[in-house]
C-alpha cells in the first residue's frame, strides 16, 4: 500500500437516513441468493424492494448496488455497470462504500474495453482515496497501455511494483514488457534481476537476462548469469540446454558448452544420439580437449551406425 493525502473529497448527500433492520435482512437474503447463483430468487426480492424504496433514497441506492453485484455475477457487465453508476449518482452511500463501488465501476469499464473511461474514474478514485493498493496502479497501467500510452503505463507499473517487497510475477512481467516497449533496457535488467531472485526456477528469465546483458555488451555478466542458471540447475529442458550450449559457443566459451552438454547427457536431460555427440565433440575440440573430443566422436560414430541400421 502507498499512502498519500487525498486531494478530493466524496460529497455525500446531506440528511441521508439509515436503513431499517427489515431492509437490511432483505438485502442480506438477496446477497445469499446471488452468491449461490439463485439469481431469479434474488431478482424477486430486489424487484419488490425497488418498488417500495422509491421515496427512500439510501435504501433505493443499496437496491441498485445489489442489482449491480447480481449482474456482475451473471457476467452481464454492461447492465452491472449501469446499476452501479445509478447507485453512485444518488450520493447516499457512505464514503468507504462509495469508493469501493467506484473502483468496481473502473474494473467493469476496463473489462468492457472502455479504457479512457477507466482512466477517468481511477484518476478521481485515487484523488479521493487516502491509500492506494497496487492493483489499482496495475489497472491504470493496463488502461494506458491498451490506449498505446506506454510511458504513462510504465509510470504506474513502477508505482505498483515499488510498493511491494515481493511483487506478483504477472506485475513484473507487465513492467518488463513496458520497459522493452519504451526501450528502458537498464531498468529491464534490474527487473529481470528481481525476477530471477524471486522466481529462480523460471529458466527463461535467466536466459532473457543474459541476452540483455549481451545486448548491452556486458559479455562477462551475460556468461556469469548463464553459469549461475546452470549451476542452480534452473536449466533442465532439452531445448533450453541446447540454446545455452549455442550461446556459450557464440561467446567463445566452448569449455562451458562442453561441460554443460556432458552433464546433460549423463543426467539424461538431452537425447543421446549421434548429433548430440557431434556437438559435444566439436565443443571439446574448440576448448582444446582433443582426447575428450575424439571419445565423443567415437560415440557419435557408433550411434550413427546404429541409427543407419534401424532406418
Structural commentary:
- With 311 residues, the protein is mainly α.
- α1 runs parallel beside α3 (57-73), α4 packs antiparallel against α5 and α7 packs antiparallel against α8.
- The chain has helices at 21-35, 39-52, 57-73, 77-89, 95-111, 115-128, 134-146, 150-162, 169-181, 185-198, 203-215, 219-231, 238-250, 254-266, 274-286, 290-310; strands spanning 2-3, 131-132.
- Strands 1-2 form a two-stranded antiparallel sheet.
- It is elongated and about 95 Å long.
- The model is unreliable at 1-5 (pLDDT under 50).
- The protein has 16 helices and 2 strands.
Our Rg estimate from Cα atoms comes to: 30 Å
Oligomer: single chain
- State the total count of DSSP E strands: 2
How would you sum up the major sheet?
Answer: 2 strands, antiparallel
Helical percentage: over 70%
H-E string: EHHHHHHEHHHHHHHHHH
| Helix segment tally | 16
Enumerate the spans where pLDDT stays under 50 for 5 or more consecutive residues.
Answer: 1-5
- The side-by-side strand order for the widest beta sheet comes to 1-2
Distance between the termini: 64 Å
Give the rounded overall mean pLDDT. Answer: 92
**In one word, what is the shape?**
elongated
Amount of beta strand: under 5%
What structural class should be given to the helix and strand makeup? Answer: mainly alpha
Amino acid at each position: 500500500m502507498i499512502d498519500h493525502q487525498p486531494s478530493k473529497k466524496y460529497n455525500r448527500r446531506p440528511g441521508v437516513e439509515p436503513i431499517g433492520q427489515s431492509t437490511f435482512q432483505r438485502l442480506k437474503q438477496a446477497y445469499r441468493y446471488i452468491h449461490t447463483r439463485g439469481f431469479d430468487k434474488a431478482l424477486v426480492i430486489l424487484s419488490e424492494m425497488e418498488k417500495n424504496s422509491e421515496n427512500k433514497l439510501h435504501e433505493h441506492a443499496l437496491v441498485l448496488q445489489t442489482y449491480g453485484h447480481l449482474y456482475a455475477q451473471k457476467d452481464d457487465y454492461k447492465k452491472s455497470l449501469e446499476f452501479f453508476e445509478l447507485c453512485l449518482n444518488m450520493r447516499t452511500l457512505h464514503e468507504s462504500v462509495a469508493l469501493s463501488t467506484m473502483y468496481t465501476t473502473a474494473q467493469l469499464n476496463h473489462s468492457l474495453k472502455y479504457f479512457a473511461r477507466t482512466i477517468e474514474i481511477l484518476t478521481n478514485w485515487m484523488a479521493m482515496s487516502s491509500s492506494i493498493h497496487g492493483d489499482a496502479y496495475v489497472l491504470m497501467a493496463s488502461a494506458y497501455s491498451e490506449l498505446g500510452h506506454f510511458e504513462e503505463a510504465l509510470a504506474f507499473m513502477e508505482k505498483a511494483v515499488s510498493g511491494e517487497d515481493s511483487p506478483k510475477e504477472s506485475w513484473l512481467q507487465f513492467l518488463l514488457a513496458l520497459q522493452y516497449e519504451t526501450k528502458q533496457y537498464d531498468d529491464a535488467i534490474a527487473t529481470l534481476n528481481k525476477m530471477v531472485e524471486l522466481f529462480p526456477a523460471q529458466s527463461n528469465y535467466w536466459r532473457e537476462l543474459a541476452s540483455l546483458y549481451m545486448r548491452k555488451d556486458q559479455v562477462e555478466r551475460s556468461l556469469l548469469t548463464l553459469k549461475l542458471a546452470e549451476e542452480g540447475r534452473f536449466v533442465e529442458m532439452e531445448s533450453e540446454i541446447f540454446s545455452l550450449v549455442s550461446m556459450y559457443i557464440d561467446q567463445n566459451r566452448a569449455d562451458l558448452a562442453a561441460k554443460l552438454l556432458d552433464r546433460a547427457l549423463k543426467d539424461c536431460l538431452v537425447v543421446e544420439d549421434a548429433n548430440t555427440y557431434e556437438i559435444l565433440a566439436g565443443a571439446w575440440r574448440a576448448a582444446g580437449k582433443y582426447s575428450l573430443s575424439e571419445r565423443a566422436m567415437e560415440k557419435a560414430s557408433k550411434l550413427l551406425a546404429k541409427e543407419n541400421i534401424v532406418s
